[in-house]
Amino acid sequence: MTVTIYHNPRCSKSRQTLSLLESAAVQLDVVEYLAKPPSAADILDLARLLGLPVAGLLRRGEPEFRDATDLPDLGDDAAVATWIAAHPKVLQRPIVVNAQRTAAVIGRPPENALELVGR
């Protein structure tokens, strides 16, 4: 069974999470989400798996968020998901999804990912 990690290789927490999972011999599907952004539907699904509103997936400290002039109403999950899909740099990272696609965690701290895979 393969675990999916939405990964940004420039992010230290994302690299640490990836390394922990590789060290634990977990089969991985690595999605470099800046190169291949998730769709709005994928983002809605990630929020559901994380048990968060879609606005909970935003990295509000990123300049792309702080300087945005086109932000939708943050209470509108569908609109926020569409906005994140167009601005993937603001997506929380890393997000790790279990093989059954029934649960996910944000790898902050990276050890959260090990709990998800039972290690």
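the 2nd protein, sequnce then structure:
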Amino acid sequence: MTAVDLFAATQPQERLLIHGPDTLTDVELVAVLLSARQASASAFTVATRLLRTVGGVPGLSRHHPDALRRLVGESLAARLVAALALPLRRDLGDVVTVAETADLVPVFRPMLHGRRRECLAVAVCDRRNRVTAVRAVTDGDSAGAPFPVRDIVATVLRHDGHAFAIAHNHPSGDPTPSAQDRGSTKRCWGAAELAGLNFLGHVVLGEHDTWASA
């Protein structure tokens, strides 16, 4: 019996619902995501090839959505990207209160760590500087990402925020802020003041838990 035959016979979708996700392999979990209905042997084949190509489950989160689209098509890539995004959409309001710049690092690291492209994210806070949401704003390339201040402010207002902080990663691993990074920080200070918001800072994340304030 081949691996594909075994996959079809053991009904991973049923095991997932009855016994939980820990009973499934990485390939089986991805195959369930890729299948619109009952997970199939063909989905297993696609999932196996995909994980080998991107470097396992960690590689899925590091790949740009457009790269996944080229590998598995638009519909399947959209399911994967949505599934990977959900764990980051938790409510952090009762967990993290921003009192100093260092408090921002664990807020942003789950979203930005290990990315091969530079990504800009915003943390939305309430009146007490408690983080209520973390959202990606732009996703660039290895050389940089656009810095749309208007979109940042719009994201904060859309989530009923009263304060916010921003962060981006340096794929090179060196978190030292560039002159452009510091200029973007100044632009955010000005935009926040015009919008009646409190700007809490700008963090640049590097490798191995390194970071710097921009």
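The longest helix spans residues 179-195. The longest strand covers residues 131-139.
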